[in-house]
Task: inverse folding
Protein backbone atom coordinates (compact mmCIF):
# COMPACT_ATOMS: atom_id res chain seq x y z
CA UNK A 1 0.00 0.00 0.00
CA UNK A 2 1.34 3.43 -0.96
CA UNK A 3 -1.29 5.64 0.62
CA UNK A 4 1.04 7.01 3.27
CA UNK A 5 3.29 8.56 0.60
CA UNK A 6 0.92 11.46 -0.10
CA UNK A 7 -1.58 13.61 1.63
CA UNK A 8 -5.23 12.62 1.73
CA UNK A 9 -6.07 15.37 -0.75
CA UNK A 10 -3.45 14.36 -3.36
CA UNK A 11 -4.80 13.17 -6.70
CA UNK A 12 -3.30 12.00 -9.99
CA UNK A 13 -4.83 13.21 -13.28
CA UNK A 14 -4.74 10.54 -16.00
CA UNK A 15 -5.21 11.14 -19.73
CA UNK A 16 -7.24 8.04 -20.64
CA UNK A 17 -7.28 8.67 -24.40
CA UNK A 18 -3.50 9.07 -24.89
CA UNK A 19 -1.29 6.21 -26.10
CA UNK A 20 -1.11 3.42 -28.68
CA UNK A 21 -3.16 1.09 -26.46
CA UNK A 22 -5.62 3.66 -25.16
CA UNK A 23 -8.10 3.57 -23.64
CA UNK A 24 -8.03 -0.09 -22.52
CA UNK A 25 -4.45 -0.25 -21.23
CA UNK A 26 -4.67 3.17 -19.60
CA UNK A 27 -7.86 2.33 -17.69
CA UNK A 28 -6.46 -1.06 -16.69
CA UNK A 29 -3.26 0.60 -15.42
CA UNK A 30 -5.34 3.07 -13.41
CA UNK A 31 -7.27 0.24 -11.79
CA UNK A 32 -4.02 -1.53 -10.83
CA UNK A 33 -2.65 1.67 -9.29
CA UNK A 34 -5.92 2.45 -7.51
CA UNK A 35 -5.77 -1.00 -5.95
CA UNK A 36 -2.63 0.35 -4.21
CA UNK A 37 -4.81 3.13 -2.75
CA UNK A 38 -3.56 5.84 -5.15
CA UNK A 39 -6.37 8.36 -5.84
CA UNK A 40 -6.81 8.93 -9.58
CA UNK A 41 -9.12 11.02 -11.75
CA UNK A 42 -9.56 9.54 -15.21
CA UNK A 43 -10.15 12.12 -17.98
CA UNK A 44 -12.04 10.77 -21.01
CA UNK A 45 -15.52 9.73 -22.23
CA UNK A 46 -17.52 8.87 -19.11
CA UNK A 47 -19.55 5.99 -20.57
CA UNK A 48 -16.51 4.42 -22.21
CA UNK A 49 -14.45 4.54 -19.01
CA UNK A 50 -17.22 3.09 -16.81
CA UNK A 51 -17.81 0.33 -19.37
CA UNK A 52 -14.12 -0.64 -19.35
CA UNK A 53 -13.93 -0.56 -15.56
CA UNK A 54 -17.03 -2.74 -15.25
CA UNK A 55 -15.44 -5.35 -17.53
CA UNK A 56 -12.19 -5.32 -15.55
CA UNK A 57 -13.69 -5.32 -12.08
CA UNK A 58 -17.38 -5.03 -11.25
CA UNK A 59 -16.40 -3.73 -7.83
CA UNK A 60 -14.16 -0.90 -9.15
CA UNK A 61 -16.10 1.74 -7.19
CA UNK A 62 -14.53 0.58 -3.93
CA UNK A 63 -11.19 1.98 -5.15
CA UNK A 64 -10.25 5.73 -5.19
CA UNK A 65 -11.16 6.22 -8.85
CA UNK A 66 -12.96 9.31 -10.15
CA UNK A 67 -14.08 10.13 -13.68
CA UNK A 68 -14.04 13.55 -15.36
CA UNK A 69 -15.84 13.53 -18.71
CA UNK A 70 -13.82 14.70 -21.73
CA UNK A 71 -15.22 14.17 -25.21
CA UNK A 72 -12.33 15.35 -27.38
CA UNK A 73 -9.11 13.51 -28.21
CA UNK A 74 -5.66 14.81 -29.12
CA UNK A 75 -4.34 12.39 -31.73
CA UNK A 76 -0.67 11.49 -32.16
CA UNK A 77 -0.56 13.08 -35.63
CA UNK A 78 -2.25 16.33 -34.56
CA UNK A 79 -0.17 19.49 -34.62
CA UNK A 80 0.59 19.98 -30.90
CA UNK A 81 0.00 23.72 -30.71
CA UNK A 82 -3.24 23.84 -32.71
CA UNK A 83 -4.55 20.67 -31.00
CA UNK A 84 -4.11 22.18 -27.55
CA UNK A 85 -5.72 25.47 -28.63
CA UNK A 86 -8.65 23.96 -30.57
CA UNK A 87 -9.45 21.02 -28.29
CA UNK A 88 -10.01 22.48 -24.82
CA UNK A 89 -12.39 19.60 -24.08
CA UNK A 90 -9.79 16.91 -24.77
CA UNK A 91 -8.70 14.42 -22.11
CA UNK A 92 -5.11 15.69 -22.32
CA UNK A 93 -5.91 19.40 -21.96
CA UNK A 94 -8.48 18.85 -19.21
CA UNK A 95 -6.09 16.61 -17.27
CA UNK A 96 -3.34 19.26 -17.38
CA UNK A 97 -5.84 22.00 -16.47
CA UNK A 98 -6.87 20.06 -13.37
CA UNK A 99 -3.32 20.48 -12.02
CA UNK A 100 -3.45 24.22 -12.68
CA UNK A 101 -6.78 24.38 -10.84
CA UNK A 102 -5.38 22.48 -7.87
CA UNK A 103 -7.85 19.61 -8.30
CA UNK A 104 -5.01 17.20 -9.08
CA UNK A 105 -1.33 17.43 -8.14
CA UNK A 106 0.26 15.54 -11.06
CA UNK A 107 -0.71 14.58 -14.60
CA UNK A 108 0.21 11.35 -16.41
CA UNK A 109 -0.16 10.85 -20.18
CA UNK A 110 1.03 8.36 -22.82
CA UNK A 111 -0.34 10.57 -25.57
CA UNK A 112 1.45 13.02 -27.84
CA UNK A 113 4.53 14.19 -25.92
CA UNK A 114 4.58 17.35 -28.04
CA UNK A 115 0.98 18.21 -27.14
CA UNK A 116 1.61 17.39 -23.49
CA UNK A 117 4.60 19.74 -23.44
CA UNK A 118 2.64 22.52 -25.17
CA UNK A 119 -0.34 22.10 -22.84
CA UNK A 120 1.90 22.04 -19.77
CA UNK A 121 3.80 25.13 -20.93
CA UNK A 122 0.70 27.14 -21.86
CA UNK A 123 -1.51 26.07 -18.94
CA UNK A 124 0.92 25.48 -16.07
CA UNK A 125 3.58 27.91 -17.25
CA UNK A 126 7.35 27.60 -17.17
CA UNK A 127 9.32 28.01 -13.99
CA UNK A 128 10.96 31.39 -13.60
CA UNK A 129 14.17 31.62 -15.60
CA UNK A 130 13.39 28.59 -17.79
CA UNK A 131 13.12 29.13 -21.57
CA UNK A 132 12.15 25.57 -22.57
CA UNK A 133 10.84 22.59 -20.60
CA UNK A 134 12.69 19.30 -21.14
CA UNK A 135 11.83 15.63 -20.74
CA UNK A 136 14.20 14.04 -18.22
CA UNK A 137 14.61 10.37 -17.47
CA UNK A 138 17.19 8.11 -15.86
CA UNK A 139 19.08 5.79 -18.21
CA UNK A 140 20.52 2.57 -16.75
CA UNK A 141 24.32 2.24 -16.90
CA UNK A 142 26.97 -0.27 -15.78
CA UNK A 143 27.24 1.34 -12.32
CA UNK A 144 23.90 3.07 -11.72
CA UNK A 145 21.73 5.59 -13.54
CA UNK A 146 22.39 8.79 -15.48
CA UNK A 147 19.77 11.53 -15.86
CA UNK A 148 19.37 12.31 -19.55
CA UNK A 149 17.62 15.38 -20.95
CA UNK A 150 16.07 16.33 -23.27
CA UNK A 151 14.53 12.99 -24.32
CA UNK A 152 12.14 14.37 -26.90
CA UNK A 153 10.38 17.60 -25.97
CA UNK A 154 12.49 19.93 -28.15
CA UNK A 155 13.84 18.72 -31.49
CA UNK A 156 15.39 22.09 -32.26
CA UNK A 157 17.10 24.17 -29.57
CA UNK A 158 19.62 26.93 -29.15
CA UNK A 159 22.86 26.69 -27.12
CA UNK A 160 21.32 28.60 -24.20
CA UNK A 161 18.56 25.98 -23.99
CA UNK A 162 21.14 23.20 -23.53
CA UNK A 163 22.78 25.40 -20.91
CA UNK A 164 19.45 25.60 -19.04
CA UNK A 165 18.80 21.87 -19.43
CA UNK A 166 22.15 21.28 -17.75
CA UNK A 167 21.13 23.43 -14.78
CA UNK A 168 17.68 21.78 -14.57
CA UNK A 169 19.21 18.31 -14.66
CA UNK A 170 21.92 19.10 -12.11
CA UNK A 171 19.35 20.64 -9.75
CA UNK A 172 17.07 17.61 -10.11
CA UNK A 173 19.84 15.10 -9.45
CA UNK A 174 21.04 17.12 -6.47
CA UNK A 175 17.49 17.17 -5.07
CA UNK A 176 16.61 13.49 -5.54
CA UNK A 177 20.06 11.87 -5.17
CA UNK A 178 21.77 14.14 -2.66
CA UNK A 179 24.82 14.65 -4.91
CA UNK A 180 25.96 18.21 -4.16
CA UNK A 181 27.78 18.84 -7.43
CA UNK A 182 26.57 16.36 -10.05
CA UNK A 183 28.91 15.72 -12.95
CA UNK A 184 27.38 17.19 -16.12
CA UNK A 185 28.38 16.26 -19.68
CA UNK A 186 27.30 17.22 -23.17
CA UNK A 187 26.44 14.41 -25.60
CA UNK A 188 28.67 14.53 -28.68
CA UNK A 189 30.42 12.32 -31.21
CA UNK A 190 33.70 12.51 -29.28
CA UNK A 191 35.04 13.67 -25.93
CA UNK A 192 37.33 16.35 -27.37
CA UNK A 193 36.23 19.98 -26.91
CA UNK A 194 36.07 20.62 -30.66
CA UNK A 195 33.73 17.68 -31.41
CA UNK A 196 30.06 18.02 -32.31
CA UNK A 197 27.77 20.27 -34.31
CA UNK A 198 27.79 24.07 -34.16
CA UNK A 199 25.06 23.79 -31.52
CA UNK A 200 27.16 21.45 -29.35
CA UNK A 201 30.31 23.55 -29.73
CA UNK A 202 28.52 26.75 -28.69
CA UNK A 203 26.77 25.02 -25.78
CA UNK A 204 30.13 23.58 -24.72
CA UNK A 205 31.58 27.11 -24.42
CA UNK A 206 28.61 28.26 -22.31
CA UNK A 207 28.83 25.25 -19.99
CA UNK A 208 32.59 25.58 -19.65
CA UNK A 209 32.08 29.06 -18.18
CA UNK A 210 29.18 27.99 -15.92
CA UNK A 211 29.22 27.25 -12.21
CA UNK A 212 28.25 23.64 -12.90
CA UNK A 213 30.57 20.67 -12.47
CA UNK A 214 30.87 20.39 -16.27
CA UNK A 215 33.20 17.58 -17.30
CA UNK A 216 33.04 18.16 -21.07
CA UNK A 217 31.73 16.21 -24.04
CA UNK A 218 30.82 12.55 -23.83
CA UNK A 219 29.99 9.75 -26.26
CA UNK A 220 27.17 7.23 -25.66
CA UNK A 221 29.83 4.78 -24.44
CA UNK A 222 30.78 7.19 -21.63
CA UNK A 223 27.08 7.50 -20.68
CA UNK A 224 26.73 3.72 -20.32
CA UNK A 225 30.02 3.62 -18.37
CA UNK A 226 28.43 6.09 -15.91
CA UNK A 227 31.16 8.72 -16.25
CA UNK A 228 28.67 11.51 -15.43
CA UNK A 229 25.46 12.08 -13.44
CA UNK A 230 23.69 14.24 -16.04
CA UNK A 231 23.92 14.02 -19.83
CA UNK A 232 22.52 16.90 -21.88
CA UNK A 233 21.40 16.99 -25.51
CA UNK A 234 18.61 18.26 -27.76
CA UNK A 235 15.32 16.37 -27.84
CA UNK A 236 15.90 14.74 -31.22
CA UNK A 237 19.27 13.30 -30.19
CA UNK A 238 17.99 12.28 -26.76
CA UNK A 239 15.00 10.46 -28.19
CA UNK A 240 17.20 8.55 -30.62
CA UNK A 241 19.56 7.65 -27.75
CA UNK A 242 16.66 6.40 -25.63
CA UNK A 243 15.10 4.32 -28.41
CA UNK A 244 18.49 2.87 -29.36
CA UNK A 245 18.99 1.71 -25.77
CA UNK A 246 15.52 0.12 -25.77
CA UNK A 247 16.12 -1.60 -29.10
CA UNK A 248 19.55 -2.84 -27.95
CA UNK A 249 17.90 -4.38 -24.88
CA UNK A 250 15.48 -6.32 -27.08
CA UNK A 251 18.34 -7.43 -29.35
CA UNK A 252 20.49 -8.71 -26.47
CA UNK A 253 17.49 -10.60 -25.06
CA UNK A 254 16.90 -12.21 -28.45
CA UNK A 255 20.59 -13.17 -28.72
CA UNK A 256 20.51 -14.73 -25.26
CA UNK A 257 17.43 -16.80 -26.11
CA UNK A 258 18.92 -17.92 -29.43
CA UNK A 259 22.20 -18.90 -27.75
CA UNK A 260 20.44 -20.94 -25.07
CA UNK A 261 18.39 -22.80 -27.67
CA UNK A 262 21.45 -23.51 -29.80
CA UNK A 263 23.68 -24.86 -27.03
CA UNK A 264 20.89 -26.74 -25.21
CA UNK A 265 20.60 -29.06 -28.19
CA UNK A 266 24.19 -30.22 -27.62
CA UNK A 267 23.86 -30.82 -23.85
CA UNK A 268 22.46 -33.53 -21.69
CA UNK A 269 18.89 -32.93 -20.51
CA UNK A 270 20.11 -32.21 -16.98
CA UNK A 271 22.75 -29.67 -18.06
CA UNK A 272 20.35 -28.01 -20.51
CA UNK A 273 17.77 -27.59 -17.81
CA UNK A 274 20.35 -26.01 -15.49
CA UNK A 275 21.55 -23.63 -18.18
CA UNK A 276 18.00 -22.55 -19.00
CA UNK A 277 17.39 -21.88 -15.32
CA UNK A 278 20.53 -19.69 -15.18
CA UNK A 279 19.52 -17.93 -18.37
CA UNK A 280 16.07 -17.08 -16.98
CA UNK A 281 17.74 -15.57 -13.90
CA UNK A 282 20.10 -13.50 -16.06
CA UNK A 283 17.24 -12.36 -18.28
CA UNK A 284 15.17 -11.25 -15.30
CA UNK A 285 18.17 -9.36 -13.91
CA UNK A 286 18.72 -7.56 -17.23
CA UNK A 287 15.02 -6.76 -17.63
CA UNK A 288 14.88 -5.26 -14.15
CA UNK A 289 17.62 -2.80 -15.10
CA UNK A 290 16.84 -2.04 -18.72
CA UNK A 291 13.15 -2.54 -19.43
CA UNK A 292 11.63 0.93 -19.92
CA UNK A 293 8.23 -0.51 -19.00
CA UNK A 294 9.40 -0.91 -15.41
CA UNK A 295 10.44 2.75 -15.27
CA UNK A 296 6.96 3.99 -16.15
CA UNK A 297 7.60 7.51 -17.39
CA UNK A 298 9.85 10.54 -17.46
CA UNK A 299 9.48 13.95 -15.85
CA UNK A 300 8.86 17.15 -17.77
CA UNK A 301 11.26 19.50 -16.00
CA UNK A 302 10.89 23.27 -16.08
CA UNK A 303 7.11 23.69 -15.74
CA UNK A 304 5.05 24.65 -12.70
CA UNK A 305 3.68 21.23 -11.89
CA UNK A 306 4.42 17.52 -11.89
CA UNK A 307 4.02 16.13 -15.41
CA UNK A 308 4.85 12.51 -16.27
CA UNK A 309 5.46 11.68 -19.93
CA UNK A 310 4.88 7.99 -20.73
CA UNK A 311 6.03 5.92 -23.69
CA UNK A 312 3.36 5.84 -26.41
CA UNK A 313 3.32 2.03 -26.42
CA UNK A 314 2.79 1.76 -22.66
CA UNK A 315 0.75 -1.23 -21.53
CA UNK A 316 -1.34 -1.52 -18.38
CA UNK A 317 1.57 -2.45 -16.13
CA UNK A 318 3.69 0.41 -17.46
CA UNK A 319 0.87 2.84 -16.76
CA UNK A 320 0.61 1.48 -13.23
CA UNK A 321 4.33 2.14 -12.72
CA UNK A 322 3.98 5.65 -14.21
CA UNK A 323 1.09 6.52 -11.88
CA UNK A 324 3.06 5.17 -8.92
CA UNK A 325 6.06 7.24 -10.04
CA UNK A 326 3.85 10.35 -10.20
CA UNK A 327 2.50 9.59 -6.75
CA UNK A 328 5.99 9.27 -5.28
CA UNK A 329 7.11 12.44 -7.06
CA UNK A 330 4.33 14.46 -5.45
CA UNK A 331 5.87 13.95 -2.03
CA UNK A 332 9.21 15.38 -3.22
CA UNK A 333 7.84 17.86 -5.78
CA UNK A 334 7.77 20.99 -3.66
CA UNK A 335 11.35 20.57 -2.49
CA UNK A 336 12.65 19.69 -5.94
CA UNK A 337 10.87 22.55 -7.70
CA UNK A 338 12.06 25.10 -5.15
CA UNK A 339 15.68 23.93 -5.50
CA UNK A 340 15.45 23.93 -9.29
CA UNK A 341 14.04 27.45 -9.37
CA UNK A 342 16.75 28.70 -7.02
CA UNK A 343 19.50 27.00 -9.04
CA UNK A 344 18.29 28.32 -12.41
CA UNK A 345 17.85 31.83 -11.04
CA UNK A 346 21.43 31.80 -9.74
CA UNK A 347 22.87 30.51 -13.02
Result:
Amino acid sequence: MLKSLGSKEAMIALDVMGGDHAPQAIVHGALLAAQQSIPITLFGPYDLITSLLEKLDAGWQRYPLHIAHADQVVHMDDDPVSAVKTKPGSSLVKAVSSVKQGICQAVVSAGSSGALMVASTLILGRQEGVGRAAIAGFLPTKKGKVLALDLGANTEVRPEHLYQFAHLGAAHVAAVSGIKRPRVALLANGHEDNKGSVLVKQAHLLLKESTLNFIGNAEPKHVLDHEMDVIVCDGFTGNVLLKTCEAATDMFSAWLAQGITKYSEKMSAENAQQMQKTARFLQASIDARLDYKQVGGALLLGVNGTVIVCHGSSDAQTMQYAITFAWRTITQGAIIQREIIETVQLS
User: Anything to note?
Assistant: The CA atoms of residues 320 and 338 lie 27 Å apart. The first strand starts at residue 12 and ends at 15. The longest helix spans residues 316-346. The two ends are 40 Å apart (CA to CA).
